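Residues determine shape. Take a concrete instance:
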Amino acid sequence: MRSSRPESENRWGADPAMALTPGGKVKWEGGIMKGRRAANLATVGALLWCLSVQPSAACTLWGAAGDAAAGGGTLVAKNRDWIPDHRQELVVFKPPTGHAFVALVAVGNDEPGVKAGVNAQGLVIVSASAGQIPRADRKKVQQKKELMRHFLTTCASVEELLKQIDRMRRPVFYLAGDRNEIAVIEVAPGGRRAVARTSSGTLQRTNHYRDIDPKGFARKPGPGSRQRYARIEELLKTNATPFTLETFIRFSEDRGGGPDNSIWRTGSRPARERTLATWLVAVSPSGRPRLYLKTADPGEKEHVCRLEVGEALRFEAGSRISLSGDLCGRTEP
């Protein structure tokens, strides 16, 4: 079975170009703008043009469910891309009430916190930035703090997660999966949301909107986001199903788009965004979820961890799972 289009597709074209209308009087001589004002306006114009087409960060999300996933159940994957200015930890959470979960946590940068997680019930949630909305505008939107932690604690399934969709206010993309289905949730400014879900097929997102009309968005879809979307879509369409964990690992390592536009990004400059982690969970219709985690923290060698989520949840709340320890190499898929 090949990748299938989910329900509720609202397709759209490119975002209109952002207009630049500087004020004040400008002196023209022979068709050329002169003076300091001209230089300043040219600089501002170039800056606004760059902002209109470049995403602030990048991630690639993809998943498979039902007949598209080996053994049934689901596969949920995220390549996490960010500036290499922090480290990442695999942390055990055991709230006083609700579900225990294991999460990938960013530590030491200006946006710390849970970036991907899977709970004891088999619900997996990952997220990606909405690159068409400037970061400052995204952060202005008020919502419950540590929202992903809340969802992993209180929800056992995609259906339960969608019952709390009104809590999702800040522009973002979510990919969630449980034992039976996967869903993509797009959250846009003004409370707009769109959901695509399937129990037999595939879904993918990068950092631009697919199901919500882009009218009024500050930025066009970035070329890197479009290129990564096209590549992961191609991989899902042209490879034989059902997909296995190993197939998705191979997809996560794809570097065909160069250092800045591949699914696994290495960055064309030392401080440029790059792939820092692959988070991939296989959730069977019954049995324990299995996690594959690859990290590439700055200044560190790459670590690969494979484990059964239930084994990690035997540790105490707040435990940091060593990515080079025995637990990470104990269970092979």
